[in-house]
Design a protein that fits this description.
Structural class: alpha+beta
Radius of gyration: 24 Å
Bound molecules: guanosine-5'-diphosphate
Largest sheet: 7 strands, antiparallel
CATH superfamily of the largest domain: P-loop containing nucleotide triphosphate hydrolases
CATH class of the largest domain: Alpha Beta
CATH topology of the largest domain: Rossmann fold
CATH architecture of the largest domain: 3-Layer(aba) Sandwich
Number of helices: 9
Number of domains: 4
Shape: flat
Oligomer: single chain
Distance between the termini: 43 Å
Helix content: 10-25%
């Protein structure tokens, strides 16, 4: 039977603007005191119990740059967002990125202007800067709820909770606690003594002790469950954050865990398909001078959408924006530091720097291909890995559709796309075969080489040109 579950609220904003302090404050003032035991706590997620406002689940999103991926998933996972902006600092780069994420995910949000107690606080100026970003708060010509808060004096905190409560009543979330279990991993680590530990958020169904758990295939069972206070619990209902002990592998942050094997990947895990509506190529452009910036942007095909442009080196925010929007990052006579390049690599963001303008223009032109459409033809899961001569062979089982030797495919770990490749060899036993269908196993070598692991998923697809 469908029931309204507690709201899941994500806190987003620039580093040092007070996200952790706000969570800390709420946790200290509104959590029923309990004996913490078992597992060391982080305060990345917890449930707040208020007599007046009921149960609410909060998720922090780490401010650290490398966690951009998780931050973007965080805002999709949640029902409501709180955009934290410090009154003394105003809108900063991660504020802009957070606004973009919130707008992309389409969830309702509240602006919390923090540090209102500081003598340098200027909430009016902050609201003006927000308006420049297209965030029009109540009282300043818009309808986005906005609350001034201070964790030093406690000002505004009850108003904030009341606003959350009102917004969540306006957007109730109904789920079936008896339905199939779906959890999303929000933190994952390998403990030297306890093994893999994962904090998940129960999205639907009920997570129960002893339950076998699955990604696409089984990844252990719930030997012990801990709530956000570190107390052992027997079950976790929808919207509860819970730590699971008993997994056999460390699942990726953002991936889903179920109570039964999955034959298909949720469509949200698939990279966006090219289609007529998304035929515009998005780029982020950084150049050495304003002159070159103007020259390049004037020469680009009108189908190119420049999401952000500026003078200066490529920085982590450029990569975050590209990651969140599917853009290319292009530089002209600028640098990208090693940490920026690493972030781009980890996030699979295409990053390229040119010294000659027409090469940059040509590169963009090459990416402006006619609209293509993809059809998923089959999926397989990697069950084993072995060596043959100097090759790494993936032992796979087809979970749906058909996989054909000449197919192109995408390799996914959880929801993360690791790359695209083709099959160099495709065998059943010792025999070369041309295809394998649902339920059949095959061994394959990939070209180019992809760093696969047992549990990864293969999604085969064909592309064709569609009409616009
Ligand atoms: P985060 O990076 O967004 O999680 O920011 P933190 O919560 O770590 O806060 C950064 C700094 O701002 C810390 O030194 C906090 O004590 C301080 N801070 C946070 N909220 C307030 C507030 O309401 N008033 C004042 N005066 N300081 C605050």
């Amino acid at each position: 039977m469908l029931q309204t579950r507690p709201p899941i609220i994500v806190i987003l904003g620039h580093v040092d603007h007070g996200k952790t302090s706000l969570l800390d404050y709420l946790r200290k003032t509104h959590i029923a005191a309990g004996e913490a035991g078992g597992i060391t706590q982080t305060i990345s997620s917890f449930q707040l119990i208020s007599k007046v406002f009921g149960l609410m689940t909060f998720i922090d999103t780490p401010g650290h740059a490398a966690f951009s991926a998780m931050r973007s998933r965080g805002s999709h996972l949640a029902d409501l967002a709180i955009l934290v902006v410090a009154a003394d600092d105003g809108v900063m780069p991660q504020t802009k990125e957070s606004v973009q994420l919130i707008k992309d995910s389409g969830i309702p949000y509240i602006v919390a202007i923090t540090k209102i107690d500081l003598p340098t606080a200027d909430p009016a100026q902050t609201k003006t800067q927000l308006a420049e970003l297209g965030v029009f708060v109540e009282g300043s010509g818009g309808n986005v709820p906005c609350v001034n808060i201070s964790i030093k004096t406690g000002q505004g905190i009850d108003d904030l909770l009341e606003t959350i409560s009102l917004l969540s009543q306006l957007h109730p979330r109904e789920v079936d606690p008896q339905g199939p279990l779906q959890c999303q991993v929000i933190e994952s680590r390998l403990d030297s003594q306890k093994g893999p530990l994962s904090r998940v958020l129960v999205y639907q169904g009920t997570l129960k002790i002893g339950q076998p758990l699955f990604h696409t295939t089984q990844i252990g069972k719930a030997k012990a469950l801990f709530n956000s206070e570190g107390q052992k619990i027997d079950l976790a209902l929808p919207a509860a954050p819970v730590e699971i002990l008993g997994l056999t592998a460390v699942p990726d942050v953002g991936s889903f865990i179920y109570d039964q094997p999955q034959s298909s990947i949720p469509t949200s895990a698939l990279p966006p398909k090219t289609s007529a509506s998304s035929s515009r190529l998005k780029i982020i452009l950084k150049t050495d001078t304003l002159g070159s910036l103007e020259a390049i942007s004037a020469s680009l095909d009108p189908a190119v959408e420049i999401l952000s442009q500026g003078v200066g080196d490529i920085n982590e925010n450029d990569i975050h924006l590209a990651f969140n929007s599917g853009a290319l990052v292009l530089g002209f006579n600028v640098k990208a530091g090693s940490s920026v390049a690493k972030l781009a690599e980890v996030d699979h963001v295409p990053l390229k720097i040119f010294k000659i303008i027409y090469e940059l223009i040509d590169y963009v032109q090459e990416h402006l291909q006619p609209v293509t459409r993809e059809t998923i033809t089959g999926q397989a899961v990697i069950l084993a890995e072995f060596k043959f001569n100097s090759d790494r062979v993936a032992g796979c089982k087809v979970t749906s559709g058909v996989l054909i030797k000449t197919d192109k495919f995408r390799l996914l770990r959880g929801q993360t796309v690791l790359g695209e490749a083709k099959f160099r060899t495709f065998k059943q036993g010792k025999n070369d075969v041309t295809a394998a269908k649902s339920g059949q196993e095959f061994g394959a070598v990939f070209s180019p080489h992809l760093d696969f692991k047992v549990g990864d998923t293969i999604i085969a697809f064909t592309t064709g040109h569609g009409s616009t």
